[in-house]
Design goal:
By secondary structure, the chain is of the alpha+beta class. Helix content is 46%, strand content 22%. The chain starts with a strand and ends with a helix.
């Protein structure tokens, strides 16, 4: 493990400062009841382990990533003898702006991510630490490593949620289940539902119903002689009565009455 120290008068110039770093560290059991003094980013290089945080227990395996904000209590340890990590700890002059941009909480555990990007930046930073004489250059490389981590772990997740919405828009005619959506958002059903509602303000199936009735409205407006059961079928409803109920709830008029008024 390498440790970086700075002149005190340089610590308010740049947004990120490297504190500790290693690319292949045999991780001992670690318990910090009051957290660590710096923010930390981890990549599991080998083996398996456990992290206990915020009253929850998470399994860790090769390729997984996790983030811990400074001062946040945690415990982690290996469940295999070769539990090895690559890590970076850092300070930031205004980390709240970064947290707001990425919607970062006090910690994050990430599976099924492309850890190679962060790993590459981490190794480049590690190899240049002792030879880099410019604090500005060192802080720039630290910035790249940190942002590569957050871009992959937080922004990619948002993109996946957007893909779920796009799938609903493009496939509303079909019968859609949560299992179908997990092919796009490869986490858990509970996380899928929670993240979707957090992003769009409605549940998945409420949004799907909204998309269906709005498409039904367009079909009726452009095909005034169409039958209700046909509209219902074209928009993914199995039950015409339910379709009519949802349509009236959305537009404050029944589809039958709307057709008559056209």
């Amino acid at each position: 493990m390498k440790i970086k120290t700075y002149e005190e008068n340089t610590l308010n110039i740049f947004p990120f400062y490297l504190r500790t770093i290693d690319t292949y560290f045999l991780q001992p059991p670690t318990l910090r009841n009051t957290g660590y003094e710096f923010h930390q980013l981890f990549l599991i290089r080998e083996g398996s382990g456990i992290i206990k945080i915020d009253g929850k227990i998470f399994n860790l395996n090769k390729g997984d990533l996790f983030f811990l904000e400074k001062g946040f209590p945690h415990e982690y340890y290996g469940t295999t003898d070769n539990f090895t990590t690559a890590f970076l700890s850092f300070t930031a002059t205004d980390f709240d702006k970064i947290k707001n941009y990425y919607n970062i909480k006090n910690y994050g555990i990430f599976y099924n991510k492309n850890s190679q990007i962060f790993k590459s930046h981490l190794e480049m930073l590690f190899n240049s630490l002792e030879s880099e004489s410019s604090i500005a250059n060192l802080c720039a490389k630290t910035f790249l490593a940190i942002i590569s981590f957050f871009d992959e772990t937080y922004l990619e997740e948002k993109k996946e949620i957007d893909k779920v919405y796009n799938y609903l828009e493009n496939n509303y005619q079909k019968q859609i289940s949560l299992d179908d959506l997990l092919l796009i958002y490869p986490y858990s059903k509970s996380k899928l539902c929670h993240k979707f509602k957090e992003k769009f303000g409605m549940s998945i199936f409420s949004i799907l119903t909204k998309i269906r009735v709005e498409n039904a409205y367009y079909i009726i407006k452009t095909n005034p002689n169409i039958k209700l059961n046909e509209v219902s079928f074209l928009c993914g409803f199995n039950d015409t009565s339910y379709f009519c109920k949802m349509y009236k709830k959305r537009f404050n008029i029944s589809p039958k009455k709307m057709i008559k008024e056209l």
